[in-house]
Input
Amino acid sequence: MVAEIIDGKAFGARIREQVAREVGRLQGDHGLTPGLAVVLVGEDPASQVYVRNKGIATVEAGMASFEHKLPADVPEAELYALIDKLNADPEVHGILVQFPVPDHLSERDIVARIDPAKDVDGLGVTNAGLLASGQRAMISCTPLGCLMLLRDRLGDLSGLDAVVIGRSNLVGKPMAQLLLRDSCTVTVAHSRTRDLAEVVRRADIVVAAVGRPKMVPGDWIKPGATVIDVGINRIPAPERGEGKTRLVGDVDFDSVKEVAGAMTPVPGGVGPLTIACLLANTVTACCRIAGLPEPEGLTA
Ligand code: NDP
Output
Protein backbone atom coordinates (compact mmCIF):
# COMPACT_ATOMS: atom_id res chain seq x y z
CA MET A 1 0.00 0.00 0.00
CA VAL A 2 1.22 3.51 -0.74
CA ALA A 3 -0.31 6.14 1.51
CA GLU A 4 -2.32 9.04 0.25
CA ILE A 5 -0.39 12.19 1.12
CA ILE A 6 -2.78 14.63 2.77
CA ASP A 7 -2.54 18.18 1.47
CA GLY A 8 -2.64 20.27 4.63
CA LYS A 9 -2.26 23.49 2.67
CA ALA A 10 -5.44 22.80 0.70
CA PHE A 11 -7.37 21.80 3.83
CA GLY A 12 -6.07 24.88 5.68
CA ALA A 13 -7.15 27.06 2.72
CA ARG A 14 -10.68 25.58 2.98
CA ILE A 15 -10.86 26.50 6.68
CA ARG A 16 -9.59 29.99 5.90
CA GLU A 17 -12.21 30.45 3.16
CA GLN A 18 -14.93 29.50 5.62
CA VAL A 19 -13.46 31.89 8.18
CA ALA A 20 -13.51 34.71 5.62
CA ARG A 21 -17.17 33.95 4.77
CA GLU A 22 -18.12 34.02 8.46
CA VAL A 23 -16.23 37.30 8.95
CA GLY A 24 -18.21 38.80 6.04
CA ARG A 25 -21.46 37.56 7.61
CA LEU A 26 -20.58 38.99 11.04
CA GLN A 27 -19.71 42.33 9.47
CA GLY A 28 -22.79 42.42 7.21
CA ASP A 29 -25.37 41.17 9.73
CA HIS A 30 -23.99 42.51 12.99
CA GLY A 31 -21.40 45.21 12.21
CA LEU A 32 -18.81 43.08 14.03
CA THR A 33 -15.21 42.54 12.92
CA PRO A 34 -13.38 39.75 14.76
CA GLY A 35 -10.02 41.03 16.05
CA LEU A 36 -6.85 39.14 16.97
CA ALA A 37 -4.11 40.71 19.10
CA VAL A 38 -0.66 39.15 18.98
CA VAL A 39 1.99 40.16 21.50
CA LEU A 40 5.67 39.59 20.75
CA VAL A 41 8.26 40.05 23.49
CA GLY A 42 11.84 40.40 22.26
CA GLU A 43 13.31 39.85 18.82
CA ASP A 44 13.59 36.10 18.32
CA PRO A 45 13.81 35.79 14.50
CA ALA A 46 11.56 32.69 14.24
CA SER A 47 8.93 34.32 16.47
CA GLN A 48 9.05 37.48 14.36
CA VAL A 49 8.27 35.40 11.24
CA TYR A 50 5.38 33.56 13.01
CA VAL A 51 3.89 36.83 14.24
CA ARG A 52 4.17 38.45 10.81
CA ASN A 53 2.52 35.44 9.14
CA LYS A 54 -0.30 35.44 11.67
CA GLY A 55 -0.89 39.15 11.06
CA ILE A 56 -1.00 38.65 7.27
CA ALA A 57 -3.40 35.69 7.54
CA THR A 58 -5.66 37.64 9.92
CA VAL A 59 -5.95 40.59 7.54
CA GLU A 60 -6.45 38.28 4.53
CA ALA A 61 -9.44 36.74 6.32
CA GLY A 62 -10.95 40.23 6.69
CA MET A 63 -10.32 40.41 10.44
CA ALA A 64 -8.64 43.13 12.49
CA SER A 65 -5.03 42.46 13.44
CA PHE A 66 -3.38 44.18 16.41
CA GLU A 67 0.35 43.64 16.82
CA HIS A 68 2.17 44.65 20.00
CA LYS A 69 5.95 44.45 20.15
CA LEU A 70 7.63 44.76 23.52
CA PRO A 71 11.37 44.83 24.30
CA ALA A 72 13.00 41.63 25.59
CA ASP A 73 13.55 43.22 29.02
CA VAL A 74 9.96 44.44 29.42
CA PRO A 75 8.95 44.35 33.10
CA GLU A 76 6.33 41.72 33.90
CA ALA A 77 3.95 44.42 35.18
CA GLU A 78 4.07 46.23 31.85
CA LEU A 79 3.21 43.06 29.91
CA TYR A 80 0.33 42.32 32.30
CA ALA A 81 -0.96 45.88 31.93
CA LEU A 82 -1.07 45.35 28.15
CA ILE A 83 -2.89 42.01 28.54
CA ASP A 84 -5.41 43.65 30.91
CA LYS A 85 -6.00 46.38 28.33
CA LEU A 86 -6.55 43.80 25.57
CA ASN A 87 -8.87 41.78 27.85
CA ALA A 88 -11.02 44.91 28.22
CA ASP A 89 -10.87 46.03 24.57
CA PRO A 90 -14.18 45.26 22.78
CA GLU A 91 -12.43 45.20 19.39
CA VAL A 92 -10.15 42.36 20.50
CA HIS A 93 -11.68 38.85 20.56
CA GLY A 94 -8.50 36.77 20.60
CA ILE A 95 -5.20 37.32 22.45
CA LEU A 96 -2.04 35.39 21.75
CA VAL A 97 1.32 35.98 23.39
CA GLN A 98 3.98 34.42 21.16
CA PHE A 99 6.08 31.85 23.02
CA PRO A 100 8.84 31.35 24.00
CA VAL A 101 9.20 34.49 26.10
CA PRO A 102 12.43 35.65 27.82
CA ASP A 103 13.38 33.82 31.02
CA HIS A 104 12.26 36.52 33.46
CA LEU A 105 8.64 35.96 32.35
CA SER A 106 6.44 32.96 33.22
CA GLU A 107 4.46 31.44 30.35
CA ARG A 108 2.03 29.91 32.83
CA ASP A 109 1.32 33.25 34.52
CA ILE A 110 0.96 35.02 31.16
CA VAL A 111 -1.61 32.48 29.98
CA ALA A 112 -3.44 32.80 33.31
CA ARG A 113 -3.70 36.56 32.82
CA ILE A 114 -5.56 36.25 29.49
CA ASP A 115 -9.37 36.31 29.70
CA PRO A 116 -10.40 32.65 29.05
CA ALA A 117 -12.99 33.89 26.53
CA LYS A 118 -10.14 35.42 24.48
CA ASP A 119 -7.62 32.58 25.03
CA VAL A 120 -7.59 31.53 21.36
CA ASP A 121 -4.63 29.20 21.96
CA GLY A 122 -6.74 27.30 24.51
CA LEU A 123 -3.74 27.13 26.85
CA GLY A 124 -5.24 28.41 30.11
CA VAL A 125 -6.43 26.09 32.85
CA THR A 126 -10.04 27.22 32.39
CA ASN A 127 -10.14 26.08 28.79
CA ALA A 128 -8.13 22.91 29.51
CA GLY A 129 -10.63 22.07 32.28
CA LEU A 130 -13.65 22.81 30.10
CA LEU A 131 -12.27 20.56 27.35
CA ALA A 132 -11.42 17.77 29.80
CA SER A 133 -14.93 17.87 31.28
CA GLY A 134 -16.59 17.82 27.87
CA GLN A 135 -17.78 21.43 27.96
CA ARG A 136 -17.55 24.23 25.40
CA ALA A 137 -13.92 25.41 25.39
CA MET A 138 -11.43 27.34 23.32
CA ILE A 139 -9.36 24.50 21.87
CA SER A 140 -5.63 24.63 21.20
CA CYS A 141 -5.17 25.37 17.47
CA THR A 142 -2.92 22.47 16.38
CA PRO A 143 -4.98 19.63 17.87
CA LEU A 144 -8.17 21.32 16.68
CA GLY A 145 -6.78 21.35 13.12
CA CYS A 146 -5.75 17.69 13.40
CA LEU A 147 -9.22 16.68 14.61
CA MET A 148 -10.94 18.62 11.79
CA LEU A 149 -8.67 16.87 9.29
CA LEU A 150 -9.36 13.42 10.76
CA ARG A 151 -13.13 14.00 10.74
CA ASP A 152 -12.96 15.25 7.17
CA ARG A 153 -11.11 12.14 5.99
CA LEU A 154 -12.55 9.40 8.18
CA GLY A 155 -16.02 10.72 9.03
CA ASP A 156 -17.22 9.18 12.31
CA LEU A 157 -14.18 8.39 14.47
CA SER A 158 -16.21 6.42 16.99
CA GLY A 159 -14.59 3.16 18.14
CA LEU A 160 -11.28 3.70 16.32
CA ASP A 161 -8.03 3.00 18.17
CA ALA A 162 -6.01 6.22 18.42
CA VAL A 163 -2.48 6.60 19.75
CA VAL A 164 -1.17 10.08 20.56
CA ILE A 165 2.60 10.16 21.04
CA GLY A 166 3.41 13.12 23.30
CA ARG A 167 1.57 14.53 26.33
CA SER A 168 2.25 18.28 26.19
CA ASN A 169 -0.41 20.77 27.26
CA LEU A 170 -0.14 22.39 23.83
CA VAL A 171 -0.65 19.32 21.61
CA GLY A 172 -0.70 15.82 23.14
CA LYS A 173 -3.18 16.27 25.99
CA PRO A 174 -5.80 18.33 24.13
CA MET A 175 -5.45 16.00 21.11
CA ALA A 176 -6.18 13.00 23.33
CA GLN A 177 -9.17 14.78 24.90
CA LEU A 178 -10.60 15.61 21.49
CA LEU A 179 -10.22 12.06 20.20
CA LEU A 180 -11.81 10.72 23.39
CA ARG A 181 -14.71 13.13 22.95
CA ASP A 182 -15.17 11.69 19.45
CA SER A 183 -15.35 8.21 21.06
CA CYS A 184 -11.98 6.87 19.96
CA THR A 185 -10.22 4.41 22.25
CA VAL A 186 -7.26 6.62 23.11
CA THR A 187 -3.77 5.74 24.29
CA VAL A 188 -1.39 8.55 25.22
CA ALA A 189 2.25 7.53 24.84
CA HIS A 190 5.26 9.47 26.16
CA SER A 191 8.94 9.12 26.94
CA ARG A 192 8.29 6.48 29.64
CA THR A 193 6.00 4.30 27.52
CA ARG A 194 7.17 0.69 27.36
CA ASP A 195 7.37 -0.91 23.93
CA LEU A 196 6.13 2.09 22.00
CA ALA A 197 6.31 0.12 18.73
CA GLU A 198 3.70 -2.38 19.99
CA VAL A 199 1.46 0.42 21.27
CA VAL A 200 1.59 2.27 17.95
CA ARG A 201 0.93 -0.93 15.94
CA ARG A 202 -2.58 -1.14 17.45
CA ALA A 203 -3.60 2.26 16.16
CA ASP A 204 -6.02 3.15 13.37
CA ILE A 205 -5.01 6.77 14.01
CA VAL A 206 -1.48 7.83 15.01
CA VAL A 207 -0.76 11.42 16.03
CA ALA A 208 2.97 12.03 16.57
CA ALA A 209 3.80 15.17 18.59
CA VAL A 210 7.22 14.52 20.05
CA GLY A 211 9.89 16.72 18.47
CA ARG A 212 12.29 13.89 17.48
CA PRO A 213 13.17 13.65 13.80
CA LYS A 214 11.80 10.58 11.97
CA MET A 215 11.24 8.70 15.22
CA VAL A 216 8.27 6.64 14.00
CA PRO A 217 9.28 4.09 11.33
CA GLY A 218 6.99 2.28 8.89
CA ASP A 219 7.18 -1.05 10.72
CA TRP A 220 5.40 0.51 13.74
CA ILE A 221 2.37 1.35 11.59
CA LYS A 222 -0.72 -0.81 11.16
CA PRO A 223 -1.42 -1.18 7.43
CA GLY A 224 -3.97 1.39 6.30
CA ALA A 225 -3.68 3.59 9.41
CA THR A 226 -4.02 7.37 9.22
CA VAL A 227 -0.84 9.07 10.43
CA ILE A 228 -0.77 12.72 11.50
CA ASP A 229 2.74 14.11 11.90
CA VAL A 230 2.75 17.20 14.12
CA GLY A 231 6.52 17.31 14.66
CA ILE A 232 8.65 20.05 13.15
CA ASN A 233 12.37 19.27 13.30
CA ARG A 234 15.21 21.01 11.49
CA ILE A 235 18.00 18.63 10.44
CA PRO A 236 21.23 19.11 8.49
CA ALA A 237 20.81 18.66 4.72
CA PRO A 238 24.34 18.45 3.26
CA GLU A 239 22.82 17.25 -0.04
CA ARG A 240 21.46 20.80 -0.46
CA GLY A 241 24.86 22.37 0.12
CA GLU A 242 27.17 23.11 3.00
CA GLY A 243 25.45 24.30 6.15
CA LYS A 244 21.95 23.82 4.66
CA THR A 245 19.07 22.37 6.67
CA ARG A 246 15.59 21.02 6.00
CA LEU A 247 12.42 20.31 7.97
CA VAL A 248 11.27 16.80 8.81
CA GLY A 249 8.52 15.46 11.03
CA ASP A 250 8.49 12.92 13.86
CA VAL A 251 7.49 10.27 11.33
CA ASP A 252 9.88 8.60 8.91
CA PHE A 253 8.05 9.67 5.76
CA ASP A 254 9.66 7.25 3.30
CA SER A 255 9.00 4.05 5.25
CA VAL A 256 5.60 5.09 6.68
CA LYS A 257 4.19 6.00 3.28
CA GLU A 258 4.63 2.35 2.21
CA VAL A 259 2.29 1.14 4.98
CA ALA A 260 -0.14 3.88 6.07
CA GLY A 261 -3.47 4.53 4.34
CA ALA A 262 -3.00 8.30 4.54
CA MET A 263 -0.46 10.60 6.15
CA THR A 264 0.44 14.25 6.50
CA PRO A 265 3.81 15.44 5.17
CA VAL A 266 6.21 17.88 6.84
CA PRO A 267 6.18 20.63 5.75
CA GLY A 268 2.73 21.16 4.20
CA GLY A 269 0.69 18.97 6.56
CA VAL A 270 -0.33 20.10 10.03
CA GLY A 271 1.52 23.45 9.94
CA PRO A 272 -1.00 25.26 7.69
CA LEU A 273 -3.89 24.01 9.85
CA THR A 274 -2.55 25.70 12.96
CA ILE A 275 -2.82 29.25 11.61
CA ALA A 276 -6.18 28.45 9.97
CA CYS A 277 -7.51 27.26 13.34
CA LEU A 278 -6.18 30.35 15.10
CA LEU A 279 -8.38 32.41 12.76
CA ALA A 280 -11.28 30.00 13.27
CA ASN A 281 -10.91 30.29 17.05
CA THR A 282 -10.96 34.09 16.82
CA VAL A 283 -14.27 33.96 14.93
CA THR A 284 -15.65 31.47 17.47
CA ALA A 285 -14.52 33.73 20.34
CA CYS A 286 -16.12 36.77 18.67
CA CYS A 287 -19.47 34.95 18.32
CA ARG A 288 -19.39 33.68 21.91
CA ILE A 289 -18.48 37.08 23.35
CA ALA A 290 -21.27 38.72 21.33
CA GLY A 291 -23.77 36.01 22.34
CA LEU A 292 -24.32 34.96 18.71
CA PRO A 293 -24.69 31.39 17.44
CA GLU A 294 -21.38 29.81 16.48
CA PRO A 295 -20.76 28.92 12.85
CA GLU A 296 -20.86 25.19 12.07
CA GLY A 297 -17.54 23.47 11.46
CA LEU A 298 -15.09 26.03 12.86
CA THR A 299 -14.65 24.33 16.19
CA ALA A 300 -14.98 20.85 17.64
P1 NDP B 1 6.96 18.99 24.01
O1 NDP B 1 8.44 18.95 24.03
O2 NDP B 1 6.23 19.88 24.96
O3 NDP B 1 6.41 17.49 24.26
C1 NDP B 1 7.01 16.40 23.66
C2 NDP B 1 6.36 15.13 24.14
O4 NDP B 1 7.02 14.03 23.49
C3 NDP B 1 6.49 14.89 25.64
O5 NDP B 1 5.25 14.51 26.17
C4 NDP B 1 7.52 13.78 25.76
O6 NDP B 1 7.29 12.86 26.80
C5 NDP B 1 7.32 13.03 24.45
N1 NDP B 1 8.52 12.29 24.09
C6 NDP B 1 9.80 12.72 24.07
N2 NDP B 1 10.64 11.73 23.70
C7 NDP B 1 9.87 10.65 23.50
C8 NDP B 1 10.14 9.33 23.11
N3 NDP B 1 11.37 8.90 22.87
N4 NDP B 1 9.12 8.47 23.00
C9 NDP B 1 7.84 8.87 23.24
N5 NDP B 1 7.51 10.13 23.60
C10 NDP B 1 8.52 11.00 23.73
O7 NDP B 1 6.56 19.28 22.51
P2 NDP B 1 5.20 19.88 21.85
O8 NDP B 1 4.06 18.98 22.15
O9 NDP B 1 5.08 21.31 22.11
O10 NDP B 1 5.59 19.72 20.30
C11 NDP B 1 5.86 18.46 19.72
C12 NDP B 1 6.34 18.66 18.31
O11 NDP B 1 5.30 19.28 17.55
C13 NDP B 1 7.55 19.59 18.16
O12 NDP B 1 8.34 19.11 17.09
C14 NDP B 1 6.94 20.93 17.80
O13 NDP B 1 7.83 21.73 17.05
C15 NDP B 1 5.77 20.49 16.96
N6 NDP B 1 4.67 21.43 16.90
C16 NDP B 1 4.15 21.69 15.68
C17 NDP B 1 3.08 22.55 15.53
C18 NDP B 1 2.53 22.76 14.17
O14 NDP B 1 1.89 23.76 13.95
N7 NDP B 1 2.72 21.84 13.23
C19 NDP B 1 2.50 23.25 16.68
C20 NDP B 1 3.06 22.83 17.95
C21 NDP B 1 4.12 21.97 18.04
P3 NDP B 1 7.43 13.25 28.37
O15 NDP B 1 6.22 14.05 28.69
O16 NDP B 1 7.49 11.93 29.06
O17 NDP B 1 8.72 14.05 28.48
